[in-house]
Design goal:
This protein has about 700 residues and is of the alpha+beta class. It has a domain of about 300 residues. Helix content is about 60%, strand content about 10%. The chain contains 26 helices and twelve strands. The strands form three sheets. Strands 2, 3, 4, 5 and 6 form a five-stranded antiparallel beta sheet that branches. β4 and β5 form a beta hairpin. The protein is elongated, with a radius of gyration of 33 Å.
Length: about 700
C-alpha cells in the first residue's frame, strides 16, 4: 500500500510541476495589492501611476553645464532603450501657435465673458512693460498678447530650454518610463535601474550632481539591500542549524532529508499557488516560506525518536498521532484565511497548506526508507533540554508576563499608513525632497477620475470641474488641450474683442481685424507624451488637485470619482487589519473544537492556551514599546499560531525526548526571525521581531502550562 502511495505522491507532484511550468508565472511586488482588490481598479491604477517612472534631476552652478550633462544623460538613456517622456517645448509651441485662436487663459476668458476689455488691455500693457516679460509672437500676430498670456499660465511644463533656477543653482529635469513588460518584472527592472545608476555616477563630476528619484530607484536599493541581508541571514541560520545537528545528533547527514522535505514542500506550495492565482505576491514568499519551517518539526521529531533498536516504521508509529494532529490543526487554521477578502491571505493559505501536506506525506511515506542508514547516535532516552520549573518559579514568570501584557495593552495603538513600513535611506530622501522643491510638488494632492463617452466628453467634464473648484490649483489634460467646444467659445470671445478693440492697432501694427485661422488643438500621443500619464483608459482620465478638501462639490457629477490616495489606502488597510483580527477569533474556536474532539475540552484548552496567550503577550509588548500595531503584525499572529501550536501538540503527545525536538524547533525559528529583526527593510524587520517574541513566549508558556502528558 505504501509503495502505491509513494508512486501516487511522485505522480501528483510531477503533474503539478508540468501544469505550473507550462504557463507564465508572474510575481507581484506592489504592497498595495495586498489590500486593494481588483474591484478598486481606479485606485490601483492611481497607486501604480508612477511605479514605472524614473526622474532625473541634474544640478549645477551654470545652466550650460547642466544642459550639456542632461543631454549626455539623455543620449545614454536612449541607448539603453529608456522611453523618454520629457517635453519638447519648441515642438509643442508650434502646435499651440497653429491653434492659438482657440486658446485663452482662464482669467482672460472670464474677463472677455464680462466684456471687461479695459482690464484685458491693462494686463497687456503690464506684460509689455514688465522687465521680466516676454512675447512669443510678433505684435501684429498677437496684439493683446493673448497667446503669450495663455502659455505663461501653463507653467514650466513646456519651457523650451527646460532650465529651472532654484536657490542660486540651475536644474534640468528628465523623465523616463520603463516598458510594461520590464516594470512588471522585478529582476529586469533592477537590471535597468543598475545601468542608470552607473550613468549617474559617471556624469556626477566637476560640480555637477545627478539625482535619481522614483519608485524603481527605491525598489532597486530596497531589494538589493534586502537580498544581501537575507543571504547573510540564510548563511548564519544554516550554520546555526548545522551546529544544533552536530551537537545533538552527531551526524550532519540528517540535514539531507530535512532539506529535501522543505524543498519539496516549498516547491509544491509554489506550484499550486501559481495555478490558483494569476500572479504570486512577493510577500506570499516572505510569509509562506518561513511558515514551511513548521514542517521541520516533523523531521526533528522523527530523528529525535530514532534509535538503532527502532525501525523507521516503528518510529513513525510512535509519533504518527502528534504529526497528524499538528498537521490537521495547522492547516485548519490557515484554511480560514480563504474566507478573507485579501488575496495575499488566500495565497498564504494555499502555499502553506500545500507545503505542509507535502512535507507531512514525504516524512510519513519516505523517511522510513531513505533514513534507514542515517545513524543519529541517540544513546540516551533522557531529554537533554527538558526545562522544569518549580511551582513558585512558574507563578513568578506568569505574573511577570501578565504584568507586561496588561500594562502594554493600555498603550496599544494602531498605524494603518502603509508608508510606515518602508523608510528610504537619507540619500534617497534628500533626492526626493530636492526634486519636490525644484518641481514645486504639493504634498497635499488628491485625484479626480473622469470618465466619458469620448475624449471630448471627458475634456468638457474636466472643464466643468475646474469651474467648480475655483482657485484651486490643478493639473489635467484640459489645462493643456481645451475641448473643441471650449476652443470654439474662446474663438468667439477673441473675435468679439477684435471687433470691438482692434481698430486703433490695425494701422500701427498692421494687425488683422480677424482672429488667426487655424485648426482645433487635438491630442495625440506623439505630440503630447507628457500627457499620457493622465490617461487611465482611452476615455478615462485623471485630474490632480492641490490643497482641495471639498470632495462633496463633485459628488453629483456623472462619471466622476474623487480619490485621496493616502486616506483611501489607509482606510483600506484599516479595514483589512480589522477583518484579519476578526478572523483570529474563529481560528481559535475552530482549533479548540478540533482539539476537544481529539483530546477532550479540558486538554484542548491546555494545548491552545500557549499560542493564544503568546499572541496577546506580543501585542501587549508592542504597546509597551510604543510600536503601533499594523496589518502585518496581525498577519504575523497567524504565523505564531501555526508555528507554536506544534510546541503544545508535540509536548502534550510526546514521550521521552520530545522536549529536545520542541526546543530545537523553537531555537532554529527564533534565531532566524531574530536575525530578520535587524534588517533594513522595516516591514521585514518588524515581522522578524514580532515572530521571534511570539514564538519564544509561546514556547515558555508551553513549558509552564503543559508540564506532563495527560
Amino acid at each position: 500500500m505504501k509503495k502505491f502511495l509513494r508512486i501516487l505522491f511522485v505522480g501528483i507532484f510531477l503533474i503539478l510541476a508540468i501544469m505550473s511550468l507550462s504557463h507564465p508565472i508572474k510575481t507581484e511586488t506592489n504592497i498595495l495589492r495586498t489590500v486593494v482588490s481588483e474591484k478598486n481598479t481606479d485606485l490601483l491604477d492611481l497607486s501604480n501611476l508612477y511605479s514605472a517612472k524614473i526622474n532625473i534631476l541634474v544640478e549645477g552652478e551654470e545652466p550650460e553645464e547642466v544642459s550639456e550633462t542632461a543631454d549626455k544623460f539623455n543620449e545614454s538613456a536612449l541607448e539603453n532603450n529608456l522611453k523618454s517622456i520629457s517635453v519638447d517645448g519648441n515642438k509643442i509651441l508650434e502646435l499651440y501657435k497653429d491653434a492659438r485662436a482657440g486658446l485663452l487663459s482662464a482669467n482672460t476668458a472670464k474677463l472677455l465673458e464680462k466684456n471687461d476689455y479695459e482690464k484685458v488691455k491693462e494686463n497687456t500693457i503690464e506684460m509689455i512693460y514688465n522687465p521680466l516679460g516676454f512675447s512669443l509672437l510678433k505684435p501684429e500676430e498677437d496684439p493683446f498678447l493673448l497667446f503669450t498670456d495663455y502659455i505663461a499660465n501653463l507653467g514650466d511644463n513646456i519651457n523650451p530650454d527646460g532650465i529651472i533656477n532654484y536657490e542660486d543653482k540651475y536644474y534640468r529635469i528628465l523623465n523616463y518610463e520603463f516598458d510594461k513588460d520590464i516594470s512588471l518584472s522585478p529582476s529586469l527592472l533592477n537590471k535597468r535601474v543598475k545601468k542608470i545608476i552607473g550613468i549617474q555616477k559617471q556624469l556626477s563630476v566637476n560640480g555637477v550632481n545627478v539625482y535619481l528619484t522614483g519608485t524603481p530607484v527605491h525598489s532597486y536599493y530596497a531589494s538589493s539591500r534586502s537580498m544581501m541581508e537575507i543571504n547573510i541571514i540564510c548563511v548564519l541560520s544554516a550554520i546555526f542549524v548545522i551546529f544544533l545537528c552536530l551537537t545533538y545528533f552527531k551526524n550532519i547527514s540528517v540535514l539531507i532529508p530535512v532539506a529535501s522535505s522543505l524543498l519539496l514542500g516549498g516547491t509544491a506550495g509554489f506550484f499550486v499557488t501559481s495555478l490558483m492565482f494569476p500572479s504570486i505576491h512577493v510577500l506570499t514568499f516572505v510569509f509562506s516560506t518561513t511558515l514551511i519551517g513548521i514542517s521541520v518539526d516533523y523531521s526533528l521529531h522523527f530523528f529525535v525518536s530514532k534509535t538503532k533498536e527502532k525501525t523507521g516504521d516503528e518510529v513513525l508509529k510512535e509519533i504518527f498521532k502528534s504529526l497528524s494532529v499538528s498537521l490537521l490543526t495547522t492547516i485548519s487554521a490557515f484554511l480560514v484565511l480563504f474566507f478573507s477578502h485579501m488575496e495575499l491571505l488566500k495565497q498564504i493559505a494555499a502555499f502553506t497548506v500545500t507545503g505542509l501536506i507535502t512535507v507531512y506525506l514525504f516524512v510519513v511515506l519516505f523517511y522510513p526508507v531513505i533514513c534507514k542508514k542515517i545513524d543519529v547516535n541517540n544513546s540516551s532516552e533522557n531529554p537533554r533540554w527538558n526545562f522544569i520549573f518549580s511551582p513558585a518559579t512558574r507563578k513568578i514568570i506568569m505574573i511577570i508576563l501578565g504584568i507586561i501584557t496588561i500594562s502594554g495593552l493600555f498603550f496599544t495603538t494602531t498605524n494603518d499608513d502603509i508608508r510606515s513600513m518602508y523608510k528610504p535611506s537619507k540619500k534617497l530622501m534628500q533626492a526626493e525632497t530636492l526634486f519636490a522643491n525644484v518641481v514645486g510638488i504639493n504634498p497635499k494632492t488628491s485625484f479626480v477620475v473622469v470618465e466619458g463617452k469620448n475624449l471630448q466628453d471627458v475634456l468638457e467634464k474636466e472643464e466643468h470641474i475646474t469651474e467648480i473648484i475655483g482657485a484651486t490649483k490643478y493639473q489635467a489634460i484640459s489645462k493643456f488641450i481645451p475641448s473643441k467646444s471650449k476652443q470654439a467659445k474662446n474663438r468667439a470671445l477673441m473675435q468679439k474683442l477684435y471687433d470691438t478693440e482692434i481698430s486703433p492697432y490695425t494701422s500701427a501694427l498692421k494687425a488683422s481685424s480677424k482672429v488667426p485661422a487655424g485648426d482645433y488643438l487635438v491630442y495625440d500621443k506623439e505630440s503630447f507624451p507628457f500627457l499620457e500619464g493622465f490617461f487611465l483608459d482611452e476615455n478615462k482620465t485623471l485630474m490632480i488637485l492641490y490643497d482641495f478638501d471639498k470632495p462633496e462639490l463633485l459628488s453629483d457629477i456623472d462619471g466622476v470619482e474623487y480619490y485621496n490616495i493616502q486616506q483611501d489606502i489607509s482606510n483600506l488597510v484599516k479595514e483589512c487589519r480589522v477583518n484579519c483580527a476578526k478572523l483570529l477569533i474563529p481560528v481559535f474556536i475552530l482549533l479548540f473544537g478540533l482539539l476537544a474532539v481529539i483530546y477532550k475540552p479540558k486538554n484542548a484548552l491546555k494545548i491552545i492556551l500557549p499560542p493564544l496567550c503568546a499572541c496577546i503577550f506580543t501585542i501587549g509588548l508592542l504597546g509597551l514599546l510604543h510600536i503601533s500595531l499594523n496589518l502585518f503584525h496581525i498577519i504575523a499572529m497567524f504565523l505564531i499560531i501555526g508555528f507554536s501550536l506544534d510546541y503544545s501538540v508535540f509536548r502534550f503527545n510526546g514521550k521521552k525526548l520530545v522536549s529536545d525536538a520542541v526546543f530545537m524547533s523553537c531555537m532554529t525559528s527564533v534565531f532566524s526571525f531574530m536575525l530578520l529583526a535587524f534588517t533594513g527593510f522595516k516591514l521585514i524587520s518588524s515581522l522578524g521581531f514580532v515572530l521571534s517574541v511570539g514564538l519564544l513566549s509561546s514556547y515558555i508558556l508551553s513549558l509552564l502550562l503543559i508540564s506532563k502528558e495527560e
